[in-house]
């Protein structure tokens, strides 16, 4: 059986990098063809890292509503059934990478019943604030990832990272006697990508 050169296999890995691409690929029919030997590679620098895993976050901060970890969707969120829907929640952790300049990639999850707001603070500085776009009636999948980036952020090792997030209802999705609230879900594995100096 013929095999493609490893360079071509890597190219296919980049172009077709997705969950279904983790299985072997075969081209041709049962009487002939070739397999692609897929290699796991990274398009980020060798010292690229993300921070932090869920267990490294404190999501019961004084002055904020408590949050919880949504294991099904792999996201930190607010329980809008048990907590006030007009109060911010927050989670904090410590930056454990080297001091430097970083591009930050933050991922929230889109929800049809509301457009939640997020604030990212590092140390005493607010570096990001945004509101999720509306997806109701637009054919976008529930809990689709929404990525926001900010570049040229100076971060010192040991700095406090704090994410504040607010639930929201757009009054469009009936639930019980009222309307549903989006739970301000976001991925705890924020990406901090070192910038070349």
From TrEMBL:
Superkingdom field: Bacteria
Protein name from the UniProt record: Uncharacterized protein
